[in-house]
Amino acid sequence: MTILNAKNLTKTFGKKTALAQIDLDIPRGRIIGLLGPNGSGKSTFIKLATGLLVPTAGEITIDGVAPGVDTKSKTSYLSERTYLNGWMRVNELLAFFEDFYQDFNRIKAENMLKDLNINPNDRLKTMSKGTKEKVQLILVMSRSAELYLLDEPIGGVDPAARDYILNTIITNYKEDASVIISTHLIADIEQILDDIVFISNGEITLTSSVDEIRETHNQSVDGLFREVFKC
Amino acid sequence: MKWYIDSDRPIYKQLVEQIELRIISGFYAPGDKLESVRELAMDAGVNPNTMQKSLAELERMGLVFAQRTSGRFITEDLKVIEEAKKTIAVQEIGAFLEKMKKLGLDKLEILALMEKVAEGENQNDDIKR
Amino acid sequence: MLTKLLKNEIKATGRIFLPLYGALLILTIVTKLALTFGAPDFFSDNVATNPFMEVVIGISFTLYFIAVVALSVMTLVMIIQRFYKNLFTDEGYLMFSLPVKTWELVISKLLVGLMWSAVCTLMFVVSFFILSLGSFTMMDLTQGISAAYTDYSNTFGASLNVLIFEIIIFGIVSTVASILMIYVSIAIGQLFNQHRIVASFGAYIVITIAIQIISSIVMAVFAISNLDTVISQGNDIQAMEMMHWIINVSTFLNVILCGAFYFATQYIMKNRLNLE
């Protein structure tokens, strides 16, 4: 069963090609790492899946449908930007998410806020960058979506919170849901991945399962990544 | 008990080994109920599918059995556990002998040294007491 | 979903506008009090009772004037900012991943922008009314209005209501058109990979010039010849007909502009979205 499918997916910005004829099939119930150096096209791919960008050629579908209202209601997207309005309080944000997403579980979100010592009455603009990222991830993971698209979810948070976040990711998705995580911090997330997709200069260079890589290359995905993308 | 996952070998194999060790060492007693896949995965910080695969492997080895509705249990067959213990011991000794050979020791020297070290350990234990 | 977007939009803008309206009302009342006690005959002879009151009146009038200007500017700024910042900067990542249709995003911004424009106008009317209280009676007001109606129908043989109605419709339509023109300029600006704000301004200027040219041509072709004859004959009724015609044609042109701006905005947002 496929949750996300890309056929011949291409995106160009002016003369620059960000993604070149990508074919990819992501089944349900998997955690997939979208790995590549900076500027390789990871974010572009995720933005195409969310409908924030429109393909130049080819197509991308989620559960068989091109990005739109229907797919947006079942994909939960964490952008690499902090997209939350500074003037809002965390509580107001919870209400906002509850309002727009039917699959949002407020109790879950409140529990996670408590675990990470975030006061729901605080305004976003008084928070550090790391805390904002945590709030954003909590909002995203408190939805019971079919597909999670996490763009650099652990970039700015401290190692302790990182562990909590990774645990949140592996425990919070439904069994038939999939999680796509884009990152270049591979060593930290390698253990929670099923499969990896290496992406470089807008092209997919390798798709494999993590254990397959360890078995055939006798090294970790992180090790292989460093070898493949050696500067 | 802490989970430890190193970098180069398949994660599911490492999980199998560590659960096996928990069974042999008595951390899990025969007949104990195992935590759910998700709980184990969260505890070890690994993907639930990977944990699932490891448990399937343990089932295949006969160390764990599944009951359709109530979950997974540690085998009550002590022979299987004993067998597993022996297998690991043999493997470890094999690896140890390999290393000793590289150091240029022959079988007798190794045995003699081992006895001496084991005795020393006993004496140490005596002193502690 | 549209109602949810509207609710959110009103919440986000209300927290700025309500305090401003409050400030305007307070300043109106303060100015009115200063006038009542400091210069009771302000509207007839414009003289303060003493130098101290003169200063007080001066300050309160200045503050009042600043509040009026601030409100007008703020209304415009909010219309631009809510569309640009909320949709085309980082906040857009959230807004465009909501399960809502693109047109709902545009319409929610437009309706709330329109609402604040209307509220702003209404607040000015209320404020001026409060300030001028006492300089006339309710009787004067009603008499003045009915006199205008009688005059008008005597001169032109028609009800003033028609003209007022046409002007109101024109006002609404042209306000919508000017808001949508800002939107389409911003949408065009974000098509560029760099200097998006500059590009938006550029687009706005280009559209303004294009509209100027088109409307002058339309007016020149259809109106000028008629206007000459009307003026030379000095016929009031014909002049008024001309007036109706100009208003209605302008309304019609603005409706076309609204349609064009709206669909262009929506097309760009749907098919050419290009968040940084």
Summarize the helices and strands and which ones pair or pack.
The complex is a heterotrimer of chains A (231), B (129) and C (276).
Chain A (H helix, E strand, L loop, with lengths): L1 E12 L2 E12 L3 E5 L6 H9 L6 E6 L6 H4 L2 E4 L11 H11 L5 H10 L13 H13 L5 E5 L7 H14 L5 E6 L2 H4 L5 E6 L2 E7 H8 L3 H8 L3
Parallel strand pairs in A: 3-7, 3-8, 5-6, 6-7
Antiparallel strand pairs in A: 1-2, 1-4, 8-9
Helix pairs in contact in A: 5-6
Chain B lengths: L10 H14 L12 H8 L3 H14 L2 E4 L3 E4 L3 H25 L4 H22 L1
Helix pairs in contact in B: 1-3, 1-4, 2-3
Chain C lengths: L1 H37 L3 H4 L5 H38 L1 H6 L6 H31 L5 H19 L3 H30 L6 H38 L2 H36 L5
Helix pairs in contact in C: 1-3, 1-5, 3-5, 3-7, 5-7, 7-8, 7-9, 8-9
Please give a handful of descriptors for the protein shown:
A: 231 residues; alpha/beta; six-stranded mixed sheet; three-stranded antiparallel sheet; 35% helix; B: 129 residues; mainly alpha; Arc Repressor Mutant, subunit A; 2 domains; two-stranded antiparallel sheet; 2 strands; 6% strand
The rounded distance between the terminal residues' Cα atoms of chain A is: 38 Å
How many β-strand runs of chain A?
A: 9
| Structural class by secondary-structure content of chain A | alpha/beta
CATH superfamily of chain A: P-loop containing nucleotide triphosphate hydrolases
* Fraction of residues in H or I helices of chain A: 25-40%
Strand arrangement, major sheet of chain A: 5-6-7-3-8-9
Protein described:
The complex is a heterotrimer of chains A (231), B (129) and C (276). Chain A has a single domain, classed as Rossmann fold (3-Layer(aba) Sandwich). Chain A is built from 9 helices and 9 strands. Chain A has helices at residues 42-50, 69-72, 90-100, 106-115, 129-141, 159-172, 186-189, 210-217, 221-228; strands spanning 2-13, 16-27, 31-35, 57-62, 75-78, 147-151, 178-183, 195-200, 203-209. In chain A, the strands form 2 sheets. In chain A, strands 5-6-7-3-8-9 form a 6-stranded mixed beta sheet, sandwiched between helices. In chain A, a hairpin with a 2-residue loop joins strand 1 and strand 2. The longest helix of chain A is centred in the last third of the chain and has 14 residues, at 159-172. Chain B is mainly alpha-helical and 129 residues long. Chain B has 2 domains: 11-76, Arc Repressor Mutant, subunit A, CATH 1.10.10.10; 79-128. Chain B has helices at residues 11-24, 37-44, 48-61, 78-102, 107-128, and strands spanning 64-67, 71-74. In chain B, strands 1-2 form a two-stranded antiparallel sheet. In chain B, helix 1 (11-24) crosses helix 3 (48-61). The longest helix of chain B is centred in the C-terminal third of the chain and has 25 residues, at 78-102. The radius of gyration of chain B is 19 Å and the shape is elongated. The two termini of chain B are 27 Å apart. The model of chain B has no long low-confidence stretch (mean pLDDT 85). With 276 residues, chain C is an all-alpha fold. Chain C folds into 2 domains: 1-135; 137-276, no CATH class. Chain C is built from 9 helices and no strands. Chains in contact: A-B, A-C.
